[in-house]
Specification:
6 helices, Arc Repressor Mutant, subunit A, DNA-binding, homodimer, mainly alpha, 146 residues, 4 strands, two-stranded antiparallel sheet
Chain lengths: 146, 146
DNA sequence: GAAATATTTAGATATCTACCAAACTTTGGG
DNA sequence: CCCAAAGTTTGGTAGATATCTAAATATTTC
């Protein structure tokens, strides 16, 4: 997990990755295409690129599955989203709005910035759009140091 | 000032506009080119587009000057930048860092979001990189209502 | 007024993003 | 085992951004 910048994937691709992570099973191209209202070929192209970057395993005709690296990255993306949404909600936005606006902003937050905000917020457990999962190694969370 | 979204200009162009606003006089192409380390022709092209959008008056060979609309917009850009930097600094970033990171994020903050954060912060007068100027009509600042 | 300087124009390159249609391949149910 | 449905590949469109070089043009300065 060294060297994450938070900008490895375009925001659309990051949305795809988060979506894949949030499904239980192997995810099929069509499912993603329907969910995001785009053509299947658009999804295939994006998946190919995400796979090339090492976040998913794409078995043609059979769907995609996150790699361990992908799971780690997706967790970061979701945590980042929820932290940004939390901050927005603390500045007067309603949960819905905070979540929606966060989706526009989060792309620009680096891993480092995300971790520092997380620390400054005291590693909160809840945001306005879900739980925030912390990981020993993902940020300076409690318990990080031996 | 109705209908500002905050995304009217690309971030580079917004940087040019802010720079122009912060100079006293008419600003010359070369000056901008040197400041941002790009070729003069790059600047000319950008200025032409900014002028087309109505923010500056470009007298070829003689430099640029903000229009009233441009002044208003540049003020918004600077206020937005400083508010974002302020929030970051309140989350543990040093002034320098806050200002630098803000430059990466600010582009995504809409006028509306900016105004609401401004309100929630109590219309602060100072940020980490300069004063925050409020305007009766730019946000729900004190004194807005008769 | 000519030389030096500044600026603009024109023409290109490059990258990224996102998207679709059509042709082709695989799978899986019957 | 075949065919329709699902999925993929290929090739193309489109727009935005940002950049540069080289040539043309304008301005300034001596």
């Amino acid at each position: 997990m060294q060297g994450i910048t938070g900008q490895e994937l375009s925001s659309k691709k990051a949305e795809y990755l988060k979506y894949i992570h949030m499904q239980d099973d192997v995810v099929k191209t069509t499912e993603i295409a329907v969910h995001f209202s785009v053509a299947p070929s658009t999804v295939t192209k994006a998946l190919t690129e995400i796979a090339k970057a090492g976040y998913i395993e794409h078995t043609p005709y059979h769907g995609v599955k996150l790699t361990p690296h992908g799971v780690e990255y997706a967790r970061f993306l979701i945590r980042r989203h929820r932290l940004v949404a939390l901050i927005l909600s603390r500045h007067g936005l309603e949960p819905e709005e905070a979540c929606r606006e966060a989706r526009k902003l989060e792309q620009c937050f680096s891993k480092d910035l995300t971790d520092r905000m997380c620390t400054s917020l005291g590693h909160p457990m809840m945001s306005v759009c879900g739980e925030i999962e912390h990981d020993r190694r993902c940020c300076g969370s409690p318990g990080e140091r031996p």
